[in-house]
Design goal:
This protein is an alpha/beta fold. Helix content is 34%, strand content 27%.
């Protein structure tokens, strides 16, 4: 079943401190939504409200209009992993999942299925205390998948992962979303999830600063790219025809300065059958824009 997450006017105050203020956004099925913001922006508080772990001061957080606590099948609707380190170090992954399945009324056979899904069969009977951070992340994901949910809510799932682990996570979540299900992934770094997400929700100091597609966000930032092409004149013509500003660079022969991101230039060159030798962004980029939006620093 396709499930839409709706956050409407959510506010959470701890005494005089406002962790989240009048937050509203929607997470659509069939897509991966990145929930972004620096540490302390209010992301985890919002996710806890969504999962019924914290009561909102005001507003609602629902799945197809229903609060988590009122779902007919919570584990069959939502799988969540908010912490990768909250496992008993003396238990094996298989034992941890068996206990979790029994507590949720999930058939024990499902444990083997999710272990295979996250590629943990080889390590399933080892004690969790000896796991790397990446394996703990996979175990958290396995636990979230136990109920065969329509929605995944993951807090910093790529935190501490090596490039191979990040790629595996990206491919897994893309396949999950491609089946029509819903994915909400939080991160404090846009660069970590940029190749993974379709939509982004950006939070700063508890307030929404952007909600929309990744492409729409990219369109807000002007990037200048240094380009070296085998046929610079033809490339300049192709880019100019699409409304992109092109000028000669002061460097070697065949170099251009193009007011567009490398991805756009690469697509134009591919469509025109042109060979590129260099694509080097000189300024701007999504990470720069993200830092400015959230008041962050390099």
């Amino acid at each position: 079943m396709a499930v839409t997450i709706e956050i409407r006017g959510v506010t959470k105050r701890f005494g005089e401190v406002s962790a989240v203020e009048d937050l509203s956004f929607t997470v659509q099925p069939g897509r991966i939504t990145g929930f972004l913001g620096p540490n302390g922006a209010g992301k985890t508080t919002t996710l806890r409200i969504l999962l019924g772990l914290v009561a909102a001061t005001a507003g609602t957080a629902t799945f197809n209009g229903t609060r988590y606590a009122e779902l007919a099948s919570p584990l069959g609707t939502v799988g969540a992993a908010l912490e990768a380190a909250s496992f008993h170090p003396g238990r094996s992954a298989r034992d941890f999942l068996r206990v979790q399945a029994a507590g949720g009324g999930i058939p024990a056979e499902r444990v083997g299925v999710v272990l295979s899904m996250v590629g943990m069969n080889e390590y399933a009977d080892r004690r969790v205390g000896g796991y790397s951070l990446g394996m703990r992340q996979r175990l958290g994901l396995a636990g979230a998948l136990l109920g065969d949910p329509d929605v995944l809510v993951l807090d910093e799932p790529t935190n501490g992962l090596d490039p191979e682990g990040i790629r595996w996570t990206r491919e897994f979540l893309r396949a999950f979303a491609a089946s029509g299900r819903t994915v909400l992934v939080s991160s404090h770094l846009l660069a970590e999830v940029q190749q993974m997400v379709d939509d982004v929700v950006v939070l700063a100091r508890g307030r929404l600063v952007y909600s929309g597609t990744l492409d729409e966000l990219a369109a807000q930032e002007k990037v200048t790219t240094r380009v070296r092409a085998a046929e610079p004149e033809r490339l300049a013509e192709a880019l100019a025809a699409s409304g992109v500003a092109v000028r000669a660079a002061n460097g070697g022969a065949g170099e251009l300065l193009v007011d567009a991101p490398p991805e756009q230039i690469g697509r134009a060159a591919f469509a025109a059958g042109l060979e590129l030798h260099l694509l080097a962004p000189l300024a701007g980029g999504l990470e720069e824009l993200f830092l400015r939006m959230t008041g962050g620093e390099r």
